[in-house]
Write a structure and sequence with these properties.
This protein folds into 2 domains: 163 residues, Metalloenzyme, LuxS/M16 peptidase-like (Cytochrome Bc1 Complex, Chain A, domain 1, 2-Layer Sandwich), CATH 3.30.830.10; 185 residues, Metalloenzyme, LuxS/M16 peptidase-like (Cytochrome Bc1 Complex, Chain A, domain 1, 2-Layer Sandwich), CATH 3.30.830.10. Helix content is 46%, strand content 12%. It contains 14 helices and 7 strands. The chain is globular and about 60 Å long. The relative contact order is 0.13.
């Protein structure tokens, strides 16, 4: 992404549904494709552009034609800019008046050491962009950038290869992917901090956010165990809130390790709270983390945390989305994804208390903890004319 255009990925992602193709507007495409089971979505992620769609075996060739055209001939239509700006203004307004909105507007960027590629820029920044900026960026990438194609579902492999040859196979030859060594460097803040924010909102609740730096997902064994550690924090917090604080809150804890930025990962806890109990909830999260860091987990917890993960493995293996997004997607660059799919049941089953305890001691360090308490304040009263 151009270093002087923070948030251009957000703008491009929002513009995608309005771009259409060079030969057909988005409205024309809807008319042309009416009655056919095809779709095309364009997404900008941290490491790639994604063009994706769903179809039926009958319409697979048309789907491949549509996706190939989306790569080869985007529309960049300026007539959608007014709609886009209005939609973004409404989106920002919602974020600015909800406690959760502080995360994309500020926290996400802070957790990445103020890297402008994370989170949302100021609305004024996005308002400066146009389809011309999107064109300049994408035209340097889509015609020649490395391309990986994955198809999952009820298909005949040989017939599908022939369809791909007639569609994506006609696109120009691709260049190799650069290493992007400098661009892959992202760092969590060197020292923890505590912050409090006020949000003008009609919603009478606040949100507590807590974060610790962890590590990337390139070491899949470590990443799976960090996920189980996060589940343990969530479970203990839920019990503590229900039994000790009498609240009906729904805490959420998750570890997100990056496959794009080596060494970068974040374990997060989010709790929607009664504003009067926000400080108590934050203290409770700290206490639970300290108890895991110094005392570890129990055998019972280990068994209970594993079970839903193992159940989820069986369920996910029946879905196209798992095989496309978690296994095949990106497997040319990271071929170990295939082994990750093969060994996940055995590896989760083999997790020990000692492994979780070691990770808790290493990563749940109080001096690295970042916390935000976001509290509501009344919306300003509109002036009354007499």
């Amino acid at each position: 992404m151009p270093a002087d255009k923070p948030g251009l990925d957000i703008y491009a992602r929002s513009a995608a549904g309005l771009m259409g193709l060079g030969k057909h507007s988005a409205d024309e495409l809807r008319r042309i494709l009416a009655g056919r089971s095809v779709s095309a979505g364009f997404f900008v992620e941290k490491d790639a552009f994604f063009v994706t769609g769903q179809t039926t075996p009958k319409d697979l060739e048309l789907e491949l034609q549509l996706l190939a055209a989306t790569v080869a001939d985007p529309g960049y239509r300026p007539e959608g800019e007014r709609i886009l700006r209005r939609g973004m203004a409404q989106y920002y307004n919602r974020l600015q008046h909800t406690p959760e909105g502080v995360y994309p507007l500020e926290i996400n960027r802070k957790l990445a050491g103020d890297d402008p590629r994370f989170g949302l820029p100021a609305m004024e920044t996005l308002e400066r962009y146009s389809m011309a900026d999107v064109r300049t960026w994408l035209e340097a990438e889509l015609p020649k950038g490395p391309l990986e194609l994955n198809i999952v579902g009820d298909i005949d492999p040989e017939a599908t290869i022939a369809l791909v040859a007639r569609t994506f196979g006609t696109l120009p030859a691709r260049t190799a992917k650069p290493a992007y060594e400098a661009e892959r460097k992202v760092a969590f803040p060197a020292a923890g901090f505590a912050a409090e924010r006020k949000v003008q909102t009609e919603i009478p609740r606040g949100t507590v956010f807590v974060f610790w730096p962890t590590n990337d997902a390139l070491d899949v064994r470590r990443n799976r165990r960090l996920g189980l550690l996060a589940s343990t924090i969530e479970d203990r917090l839920r019990v503590k809130i229900r039994e000790g604080l009498g609240g009906a809150y729904s805490p959420d804890a998750d570890n997100e390790g990056s496959l794009t930025f080596p060494g970068f990962g974040v374990l997060s806890v989010t709790v929607g709270v009664d504003p009067a109990q926000a400080a108590t909830i934050l203290a409770t999260v700290r206490e639970i983390a300290d108890s895991l860091r110094t005392g570890g987990i129990t055998d019972d917890e280990l068994v209970r945390m594993k079970q839903p993960i193992l159940t989820g493995i069986l369920e996910s293996a029946r879905t196209n989305s798992y095989w496309l997004g978690n296994v095949l997607g990106g497997c040319r660059e990271l071929p170990q994804r295939l082994d990750w799919a093969r060994n996940r049941t055995a590896d989760i089953t083999a997790i020990t208390r000692e492994e979780i305890d070691a990770l808790a001691a290493e990563y749940l360090r109080p001096e690295r903890l970042v916390s935000y308490i976001v509290l509501p304040e009344p919306m300003p009263t509109a002036p009354t004319a007499h």
